[in-house]
Amino acid sequence: MFAILAIAALVALHAGAVAFVGALPDAWAPALAATVYLPLWPLSAVGVPVFGPAPSGGWPGPNAAGWVMLLVAWSVMWAIPVALVARWCRRPAPAR
């Protein structure tokens, strides 16, 4: 249960950082953009429609399917460190 809550909290923080990237230091923008576009480019390359229409001279943003795919990708991405921390913090089983 703790792991699910931890993953959900980390995904929510990640989504919040992406949503409010303008309020963060400018140096964070490329890293946050990478967490949006890098998981979606392979899906787009195989024909999954994950991007909406691009503004003139700009990059296309994710459409609804793209945001769902991002939430799944971020959940998997954050599940790995949560699982490692949970494994390291696990109490040893009592001796019988």
Topology:
Layout: H1 2-19, H2 28-45, H3 64-89
Helix pairs in contact: 1-3, 2-3
Brief characterization of the structure:
The chain crosses the membrane at residues 64-86. The protein has 96 residues and is mainly alpha-helical.
Task: Write a structural description.
The chain is mainly α and 96 residues long. It has helices at 2-19, 28-45, 64-89. The chain has one domain. It has three helices and no strands. It is elongated, with a radius of gyration of 17 Å. The mean pLDDT is 91.
Q: Which key terms come to mind for this protein?
A:
96 residues, 3 helices, 65% helix, 0% strand
User: Rough shape?
Assistant: elongated
Q: Which range best describes the helical content: under 10%, 10-25%, 25-40%, 40-55%, 55-70% or over 70%? A: 55-70%
**Series of H and E elements:** HHH
Largest sheet: none
**Overall mean pLDDT:** 91
Question: How large a portion of the residues is in β-strands, by DSSP E?
Answer: under 5%
Low-confidence segments, given as residue ranges, are none
Number of domains: 1
Measured between the Cα atoms of the first and last residue, the distance is: 26 Å
Count of helical stretches: 3
Q: From the alpha-carbon coordinates, what is the Rg to the nearest angstrom?
A: 17 Å
Oligomer: single chain
Number of strands: 0
Main structural class: mainly alpha
Transmembrane segments: 64-86
Keywords: Membrane, Transmembrane, Transmembrane helix
